[in-house]
Amino acid sequence: MTVREELEYQEHRRLNPLAAFADRSKGRPNPEPPREWDVRTCYQRDTDRIVHSKSFRRLMHKTQVFLQPEGDHYRTRMTHTLEVSRIARSITRALGLNEDLAEAIAMGHDLGHTPFGHAGEWALTDMMGKPFRHNEQSLRVVDVLERDGAGLNLTYEVRNGILCHTGDPWPETLEGMAVRRSDQIAYINHDIDDAIRAGVLTDDDIPGDIAAVLGHSSRERLNTLVCDAILTSREAGKVCLSPKVDRALRDLRSFMFERVYRNPVVKGEETKAMDMLRRLFEYYVNHPEALPGDFQPQMSFDGLERTVCDYIAGMTDNYAVDKYTEIFIPMGWNVRG
Questions:
Q1: Are residues 190 and 313 in the same domain?
Q2: Distance CA 9, CA 1 (A)
Q3: Does residue 167 lie in a domain region?
Q4: pLDDT digit string (tens) for 63-87?
């Protein structure tokens, strides 16, 4: 018995019968024969492929909520991803589900996010003339864009969890559902934490009826939400929250939209960011020769606009600013007399 087979055997001994077992995966888009020397299950391999990808490394320089904040302690897409992964592992471990699958989905769920958060999505939606959805782009990244067009060839269950971590439909696996819930739990809490750090909110601003259910601090809210998800899901046979806690979380999200996500202080630079990305898009459509060499072949089968969209969506915040400066901002002359 190989190490991989031993790990797969142990999954059947210790996991919930409703878990997604590695040896029962629906497989990869391009089948890969098992290797005798492989010491990882298919889901463990998927996590490694994602973590070693270029798209994953770029997450550390992509905005979460606050555009290019001054300070080292605000969340980025990378730190958000890590927080989602930890919450998802806590929930799946307690429910006897497959932690390795949950980790792989969590690590890949935001790979398709644009620079400047949702402002980038809105800009690309305008330029493409159809909705740009980061979950669909995340799947495109792992299926098509990584490894110079070869993709990462991830398992069906990971790909489904990435695509369905937001929007419709819900993931097919309980592990995917756990990541979707963990994403909601993570972002609402760390966005409050960042808003307090920025002076936009205080803990006392959280409405009393919400705080009475979820708690009066980030620690209390996280504990309430994670524990409620675990205890409620054990009885329900699916990953969910109790009606009372779920309603409080929805109310908290509405509060955050009113006070933070649409706050002119927080979003004051969003219009500039959107205009900048629009101008970059128009520039590359009119000057396709300026696209990097590894994007040139893509134009022949994906078309110019789709290629430009992929290039801009993959940019980090700083890279987008640098390219805009390079293209549109006049450089000073060094004139010698």
A1: no
A2: 10
A3: yes
A4: 766 555 555 557 789 999 999 999 9
